[in-house]
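User: Design a sequence. Structure:
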């Protein structure tokens, strides 16, 4: 097994009382720049009068199967 690092865009809705939260959406990206661009697009779609989502780009370690290489 080989370990690789990817960037994970995580969209969360934080409920009251904290720290209750719901995961709304997640997607992996190979680079920080791609993750941040997707995060910016998500933020642009939020309406000011609606509940705010928390949008985070996080590092994620993944095991990759190297059998057959």
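Assistant: Done.
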């Amino acid at each position: 097994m080989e370990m690789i690092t990817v960037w994970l865009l995580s969209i969360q809705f934080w409920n009251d009382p904290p720290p209750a939260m719901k995961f709304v959406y997640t997607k992996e990206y190979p680079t920080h720049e791609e993750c941040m661009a997707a995060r910016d697009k998500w933020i642009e779609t939020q309406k000011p009068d609606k509940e705010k989502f928390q949008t985070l780009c996080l590092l994620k370690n993944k095991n990759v199967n190297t059998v057959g290489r």
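Residues 32-44 form the longest helix (13 residues). Helices lie at 32-44.
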